[in-house]
Design goal:
heterodimer, A: about 170 residues, alpha+beta, 4-stranded mixed sheet, B: about 425 residues, Rossmann fold, Ubiquitin-like (UB roll), de novo design (two linked rop proteins), 3 domains, 5-stranded mixed sheet, 4-stranded parallel sheet, 18 helices
Chain lengths: ~170, ~425
């Protein structure tokens, strides 16, 4: 199904934010919409967005390559993105990332065998006073998890594994 | 002293429209639209001495005055891209005192004759954008946004726009490119945004904290605002304190508060009571201040911090204790800038690539004294050759760490 068929109201609302002669501004919100379901933007959606905004598919692909929150490839249903930048690292973020990955049996950047969770180190999340901190990126958008421990994180992953629903 | 920006700490429910109204909310916007000329509003902000809180410290009223009056429509864009490592103040404002920020956007828009304003939030602030959308809808319903406001001919709409994870989009022209649906790469300047901004139209880009100051400046006047802070840096500032302190967090204090007060009185001192070794006052973009008593007693305002060979920037104060070696620290900052360089300017793109190789070697224990010299040389060759400040920022910690902490690098290449 095309995006236009799936999300007619959302698309209308997004386009209304920008002057009609500058509808390319809708590209970023449309990309979020396109990766809502599967966690990445497939070629089909890329072409549809290009057509909708009267730009080339290459211009759309360049956006996905440039911005870290857009993904051109599938990964775990939920991405756990751990900040390991300087202020967080001063408060134990590197160790947190290593311990979390060891607990999940993956390398940083890797995905669990059941395809549920991908853990990746990311740049500053603007929550330096609440390290260790990560954000989760999944079908329902992005959420912050602050002052985290490996134990709390494993509970979160277990809850997801059991419910299955929230990460559909 | 009662807070001016972090008012939710004194009035917990201030994100409720009725509570905000009861505490003087929207009175400044109403006063501006119904009783003041746009030029008068700009004049008050100019007289208040308010300077941009995003890092550059440019006088806000001046920026508004620069708007090209022969080219319309005008736009206001709030920079909520907050991505400097060590900065986390704008998020607290938007999450807890959203109406004061939105009122600031509205007053700025009136002052420059804009009928549409965009709030550009970093993509990670997804829930914050949804929250602001709710608050904007509440303002529309209550008649503070929309058509013919307060019975005048002035109309205004505010929209949120989410970025998608790119530090460079905090740079105002990269931000505008991104808002136009393009890769966030800085434009050649001049022309500056007040002449050529969003869609090529005159645009004011102001930081969230800057705009959040505006309602109370209009309500209480320029002299009230100037009575706080220092001659060079009027008013209050939110200092984001992070790193090896016991109580990291945001502290709203007058400009001129000393590092010592911030770290020890407010931050509770250093973890395990160790000595402070260094301070980065402007996040990862800082020149690193080597700490002694004189540095600790330096007032935090734009001019005083400069006497230490550093900048105050967005006042994201990262505290480093004596457990940290500078080669480890540079490995962190260079990784960051290597990742965030947008790739447009060769010195920044290639320079950071090579700096990363060098610091990995030095920090990994296989580097030589020549590598340290080469690292400094690469950094110096990036300086002054890039379109935006990112290239410059990427070298600040490198050069200052090597010059001010040579012993750390001697140890790294000999161990």
């Amino acid at each position: 199904m095309s995006l236009a068929e799936k999300y007619p109201e959302e698309i209308k609302r997004i386009l209304a934010k920008y002057p009609p002669e500058h509808k390319r501004s809708a590209l970023m919100p449309l990309l979020y919409l396109a990766q809502r379901e599967k966690g990445y933007v497939d070629n089909h959606a890329m072409n549809e967005i290009a057509e909708m905004l009267e730009i080339t598919p290459t211009e759309v692909a360049a956006m996905i390559g440039f911005y870290t929150l857009y993904h051109g490839e599938p990964a775990g249903k939920l991405r756990i993105q751990v900040c390991v930048d300087l202020p967080c690292a001063l408060r134990g973020a590197d160790k947190f990332l290593a311990d979390l990955c060891a607990n999940l049996g993956i390398e940083p950047g890797g995905t669990t065998a059941d395809g549920l969770v991908t853990v990746e180190p990311v740049m500053c999340l603007a929550a330096c006073d609440k390290a260790p901190v990560f954000q989760t990126q999944g079908p329902d958008g992005i959420a912050y998890h602050e002052n985290m421990t490996v134990e709390k994180t494993m509970q979160l992953v277990e809850a997801l594994r059991e419910s299955g629903k929230e990460v559909k | 002293m009662a807070h001016i920006l972090l008012r939710h700490r004194d009035i917990p429910d201030i994100s409720n429209l009725e509570v905000y109204k009861k505490n003087g909310g929207f009175e400044a916007f109403k006063k501006a639209v119904t009783k003041m000329d746009p030029g008068d509003v700009t004049q008050v902000v100019k007289d208040s001495g308010l300077r941009g809180r995003g890092g550059a410290g440019f006088p806000t009223g001046m920026k508004w005055l620069f708007m090209d009056r022969d080219n319309w429509p005008h736009y206001v864009v709030a920079n909520a891209d907050e991505s400097e490592p060590g900065t986390f103040k704008d998020r607290e404002i938007m999450e807890n005192n959203p109406f004061q920020f939105l009122e600031g956007v509205a007053i700025a828009s009136y002052a420059v004759g804009a009928h549409a304003a965009y709030i550009y939030l970093r993509g990670e602030f997804w829930p914050v954008a949804a929250w602001l959308d709710e608050k904007i809808a509440e303002m529309e319903k209550a008649g503070y946004l929309g058509e013919k406001l307060f019975g005048t001919n002035y109309s205004l709409r505010i929209y949120t726009h989410l970025g998608a994870g790119a530090y460079i989009c905090g740079e105002e022209t990269a931000l505008l490119e991104s808002l136009e649906g393009k890769r966030g790469q800085p434009r050649l300047r001049p022309p500056f945004p007040p002449a050529y901004g969003l869609y090529g139209k005159p645009t004011v880009v102001n930081n969230v904290e800057t705009l959040t100051n505006v309602p109370l400046i209009i309500a209480n006047g320029a002299d009230w605002y100037k009575s706080m802070g220092t001659a060079d840096s009027a008013g209050v500032k939110i200092f984001s304190l992070s790193g090896r302190v016991k109580k990291p967090g945001n502290y709203e204090l007058p400009f001129g508060t000393t590092f010592r007060q911030l770290i020890y009185e407010y931050g509770g001192g250093i973890i395990d009571d160790r000595p402070v070794k260094a301070i980065m006052a402007a996040g990862a973009s800082s020149s690193i201040i080597k700490v002694d008593d004189q540095a600790l007693d330096t007032p935090m305002d734009y001019a005083s911090v400069r006497t230490l060979g550093a900048d105050l920037g967005s006042a994201s104060v990262i505290v480093i204790d004596d457990t940290v070696s500078m080669d480890w620290l540079l490995n962190k900052t260079i990784h960051f800038f290597k990742h965030e360089s947008c790739g447009k300017c060769t010195p920044c793109r290639e320079g950071n690539y090579w700096m990363l190789h060098l610091i990995e070697r030095i920090h990994g224990g296989t580097g030589s004294a020549e590598d340290v010299e080469l690292l400094k040389s690469v950094a110096k060759q990036i300086q002054g050759k890039c379109l935006c400040a990112l290239g410059e920022f990427s070298t600040m910690a490198v050069v200052s760490a090597i010059e001010r902490f040579p012993e750390d690098f001697k140890k790294a290449v000999h161990s």
